[in-house]
Amino acid sequence: xxxxxxxxxxxxxxxxxxxxxxxxxxxxxxxxxxxxxxxxxxxxxxxxxxxxxxxxxxxxxxxxxxxxxxxxxxxxxxxxxxxxxxxxxxxxxxxxxxxxxxxxxxxxxxxxxxxxxxxxxxxxxxxxxxxxxxxxxxxxxxxxxxxxxxxxxxxxxxxxxxxxxxxxxxxxxxxxxxxxxxxxxxxxxxxxxxxxxxxxxxxxxxxxxxxxxxxxxxxxxxxxxxxxxxxxxxxxxxxxxxxxxxxxxxxxxxxxxxxxxxxxxxxxxxxxxxxxxxxxxxxxxxxxxxxxxxxxxxxxx
Length: 301
Description:
The structure is a single chain. This protein is an alpha+beta fold and 301 residues long. The chain folds into two domains: 2-144, Glycoside hydrolase family 3 C-terminal domain (Rossmann fold), CATH 3.40.50.1700; 199-281, no CATH class. It has helices at residues 17-25, 46-54, 90-98, 135-144; strands at 59-64, 104-109, 124-127, 199-206, 215-224, 229-235, 241-247, 253-260, 266-269, 276-281. The strands form three sheets. A four-stranded antiparallel β-sheet has the order 6-7-10-9, with no helix packed on it. The longest helix has 10 residues, at 135-144.
């Protein structure tokens, strides 16, 4: 929007990821090469970035979008894409750095999910989308492990640039030999996210049906066999319901309560961890979500 009104700045301070990483790790430990431009396919700057990566212990490659309207950016209203490849010459930059063999973390700051299936050599991928004014500090904190990663994908991350959908898990959103030769299986499905823990969902119970205007009781028991972590418990019967809770290593905890129509949040205490978890409830339509989710509740009738 600001590109339509020259002479106006953002009005707030938004640090770059580079500035945040230097602040997090120390400026003397961080070196930088641009590697190219988001809107240009020119690869002249890739060689300098590759040379710097080869001379480093770890490489952090930050790619993504420029927010804009009607062609002023790579993501936003009127900024459609022919496919889901990273824009400009970013694909060549990422693959060239990965080919050095230097441990590499890929950070994606984007307005849409891009196909990341070609980057299997990356030691980690941080999908931050457009994270806002404090996003750079959050990304740097995750890279240093000061901030625990607890997010879950609100969309699918495609494997291939020709992916037919990035939302939920449609019936034809996987490999379907005999129907299509294209494999639309996502790289990371809806709801995917890694944490420090090793969370095991032991028991999930819920009624098999939910009447219109009624309520449904759901209960889940989880166990953490890994490091202390925060787990986002997801429940998708006829709406989206999140419970954020802290769970200490080896401590089982249960979460149960009524699932009603409405928008008022409630706070419950998790037995074992004694940490409150705030939940939000809202109305929507029943949907199958991620194929990787270990358990599914019966679809309301």
